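Tokens for chain A. Residues wanted.
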């Protein structure tokens, strides 16, 4: 009976040893899939397009020149028509353009209404999470 238990323990130990050595020697190939965005050079850990920091002082317009009338205006004082004008522009942007649009508005000293600001920042955060 004791011999059978010892044979069983030795067999289990040998099986564990061979499994460990087999896994250690075995190299797993990992396929890395990534998509390179044409607008991003890929040389940065985080793409500059998804950054809200004003790295350059060049203003880029997104067919939103009309928003310049809102320069240095408190968002609480926007009329419904002005809020709709901002919303129309925001909802026609591609997700990849949202961070650039916000940077452009910062440089032009235009503030977003709170409803749109939250949604725009959520899109930028999601894009950062996906690209990180």
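Reply:
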């Amino acid at each position: 009976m004791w011999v059978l238990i010892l044979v069983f323990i030795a067999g289990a130990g040998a099986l564990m040893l061979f499994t460990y050595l087999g896994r250690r020697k075995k190299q797993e190939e990992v396929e890395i899939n990534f998509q390179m965005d044409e607008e991003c050079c890929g040389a940065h850990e985080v793409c500059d397009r998804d950054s809200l920091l004003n790295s350059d002082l060049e203003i880029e317009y997104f067919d939103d020149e009309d928003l310049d009338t809102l320069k240095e205006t408190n968002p609480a004082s926007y009329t419904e028509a002005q809020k709709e004008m901002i919303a129309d522009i925001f909802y026609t942007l591609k997700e990849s353009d949202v961070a650039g649009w916000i940077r452009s508005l910062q440089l032009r000293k235009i503030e977003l209404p709170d409803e749109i600001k939250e949604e725009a920042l959520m899109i930028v955060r999601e894009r950062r999470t996906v690209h990180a």
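Confidence is low (pLDDT under 50) at residues 36-46. The helical segments are 2-25, 80-92, 98-107, 114-131.
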